[in-house]
Design goal:
Rossmann fold; four-stranded antiparallel β-sheet; alpha/beta
C-alpha cells in the first residue's frame, strides 16, 4: 500500500482580503500522479501556491512526508523536497539552456544530473547553448520542468504544463510525465485539458469555487464522463 506523501486538509488561502480557497481537502500518495481539474478561476493554481507558501495568508493543514508546512516559508518548503513549476515557466531569457538548468540549487540529495535531464529531454540537449529567448514554447516548458529535477525534489507541482502547446508537444510532455512517475516521482498536476490528464493520471480531484467537490479515479472516467463534463463545462 502506498502512503500519503502530501495531505491537505481544510486549506484556506487569501490574497489580501480576497478569500480564494475555502477548505480544500485532498491527498496524494507516494508515487502517484494526481490532477486538479476545474474551470478557470476555480482555485487550482492558488492551491499549488498555497502548498508552496506563496499566497498572502493561509490556514489549515499541509503535511508533506510527515512535516507540517503551513507555518513554513517557501524556501524551507522547497528544501524539504517540493518543486514548483509555474504556468509562466520563469525562464531566464538572457541565460542559455544549460545555465537555466544549473541556476536552481540542489536542495536535497538525489537530484538528476544535467546529462540525465538531457536524456529525458533530448530537445534541450540539442539546444543547450541557445538563449531562453530562442526557445519554442514547448522547449521552454521542458526546460522549466527539467530545472526542478536537479533540485532533489520528491514532489513536483506542475501548473498547466500543456497550456498553449501544439498536440505533438503535448504528447511529448505526457511521455515525460509517465517517465518521471516510473522513476518514482510524485506529481500534482493542474490541468484544464482532462483528455490529456486522462493519459497520465491515477486520480483526479475536481475543484470548484475554492473547494474540492469530487474525486474521480482514472479508471472511472468512462462511467463518470457526463458528470465530469458538467463540472468542466465541456
Amino acid at each position: 500500500m502506498s502512503e500519503a506523501l502530501l495531505e491537505v486538509a481544510d486549506l484556506n488561502a487569501w490574497y489580501g482580503e480576497s478569500h480564494v480557497l475555502h477548505g480544500i481537502d485532498f491527498t496524494v500518495d507516494e508515487g502517484e500522479l494526481v490532477t486538479l481539474l476545474g474551470r478557470n478561476g476555480a482555485g487550482k493554481t492558488t492551491t499549488l501556491k498555497a502548498i508552496m507558501g506563496m499566497v498572502g495568508r493561509r490556514s489549515g493543514r499541509i503535511a508533506f512526508a510527515g512535516a507540517e508546512l503551513i507555518a513554513l516559508p517557501s524556501d524551507r518548503i522547497a528544501r524539504l523536497g517540493v518543486g514548483y513549476c509555474p504556468e509562466e515557466r520563469g525562464i531566464f531569457a538572457a541565460l542559455d539552456v544549460e545555465e537555466n538548468l544549473m541556476l536552481p540549487p540542489a536542495v536535497r540529495p538525489g537530484g538528476m544530473s544535467v546529462e540525465e535531464i538531457y536524456t529525458i529531454f533530448p530537445n534541450l540537449a540539442e539546444r543547450r547553448r541557445s538563449p531562453g529567448t530562442k526557445l519554442s514554447g514547448g522547449e521552454q516548458q521542458m526546460l522549466a520542468i527539467g530545472r526542478i529535477l536537479r533540485t532533489g525534489a520528491r514532489l513536483l507541482l506542475l501548473d498547466e504544463p500543456t497550456e498553449g502547446l501544439a498536440p505533438v508537444i503535448v504528447r511529448q510532455i505526457g511521455a515525460v510525465l509517465r517517465t518521471l512517475k516510473a522513476k518514482g516521482f510524485t506529481i500534482l498536476l493542474v490541468e484544464q485539458n482532462f483528455r490529456f490528464a486522462a493519459t497520465v493520471a491515477d486520480r483526479h480531484y475536481v475543484v470548484q469555487n475554492g473547494c474540492v467537490v469530487d474525486m474521480i479515479a482514472n479508471s472511472d472516467l468512462g462511467i463518470r464522463s457526463d458528470r465530469l463534463h458538467e463540472y468542466l463545462g465541456v
